[in-house]
Amino acid sequence: MRRKDREEPEFDINAIPGIAGRNVRSGAEIPQSVINRLPRYFRCLRELLNRDIVKVSSEQLSQAVDVTACQLRADMKYFGGLGQRGYGYNVMKLYNSISEVLGVGKKYTAVIVGAGNLGKALAQSRLFEQRGVWIKGVFDISKKKQGTTVADSEVSDVSAMRGFCRDNGIDIAVICCPSRSAEELYSLIEGTGVKGVWNFSPSELDPAVLGVPVVNICTGDSLMLLTHEMSLKENEKE
């Protein structure tokens, strides 16, 4: 890895960079397995930029994201021309190209539905800002929470969400409701005009029903996968 020369401008992660010098293959269809690895590359490259590193070899990058160098080079073929033999990868160009595929820098807007512990934690984190998504509103059904402030947004009645989303062209609904049925959530999201749903509720939502992309996040499932792996290790010792 090589650090940048002094005359090169500072990189500020708080300002999402423009997508300059892009070189994604025109019309190339990237397999889902590669797409699933892109967030790991994105996080690693962002960390390299924060450390003022401007180039990285395939071996160094593959170790950082825990894939083989062969796998990494195969993945990077979908971003043709970014790697050079004897030089490696230009970190900023590769970061920009992956950002383009992931939609970072398009300045998507989002609302959070549910101002409980999870909703507040997400709203107050820099997770959205660092990925080019801007929180524009927070909604909750609880009268006690309405009128309070979460991450510079006043919590509003969930009944006002549909009109707010339509009037402001909101792109993403982040669902943090703890106990709503799928039917209730479909009714809540219907008519908002959002283009995607990030769902943390216990109810799994079907993108075919909503007509927009949906990512269902079940944190309980992840915890059980962890306890399963721990149980296997314990059984091996026994």
Protein architecture, described:
By secondary structure, the protein is α/β, with parallel strands linked by helices. The chain folds into two domains: 2-101, Orthogonal Bundle (Arc Repressor Mutant, subunit A), CATH 1.10.10; 108-221, NAD(P)-binding Rossmann-like Domain (Rossmann fold). The protein has helices at 32-50, 58-65, 69-76, 91-102, 117-124, 161-168, 182-189, 207-210, 219-237, and strands spanning 2-3, 53-56, 83-84, 88-90, 108-113, 133-140, 149-150, 153-157, 172-175, 196-199, 214-216. The strands form two sheets. A seven-stranded mixed beta sheet has the order 7-8-6-5-9-10-11. It has a four-stranded antiparallel beta sheet with strand order 1-2-4-3. Strand 5 (108-113), helix 5 and strand 6 (133-140) form a beta-alpha-beta unit. Helix 1 (32-50) packs across helix 4 (91-102) and helix 2 crosses helix 3 (69-76). The N and C termini lie far apart (43 Å).
How are the SSEs ordered, and which strands pair?
Elements: E1 2-3, H1 32-50, E2 53-56, H2 58-65, H3 69-76, E3 83-84, E4 88-90, H4 91-102, E5 108-113, H5 117-124, E6 133-140, E7 149-150, E8 153-157, H6 161-168, E9 172-175, H7 182-189, E10 196-199, H8 207-210, E11 214-216, H9 219-237
Parallel strand pairs: 5-6, 5-9, 6-8, 9-10, 10-11
Antiparallel strand pairs: 1-2, 2-4, 3-4, 7-8
Helix pairs in contact: 1-4, 2-3
Task: Give the overall form.
Answer: globular
- Gyration radius from CA atoms, angstroms: 21 Å
Task: Decide which structural class fits the backbone.
Answer: alpha/beta
Write the H/E string, N to C: EHEHHEEHEHEEEHEHEHEH
Secondary structure tally: strands: 11
* Share of residues in helices: 25-40%
- Write down the CATH class of the largest domain: Alpha Beta
Q: What CATH architecture of the largest domain do you see?
A: 3-Layer(aba) Sandwich
N-C termini distance:
43 Å
The poorly predicted ranges are: 5-27
**CATH fourth-tier homologous superfamily of the largest domain:** NAD(P)-binding Rossmann-like Domain
Q: Report on the biggest sheet.
A: 7 strands, mixed
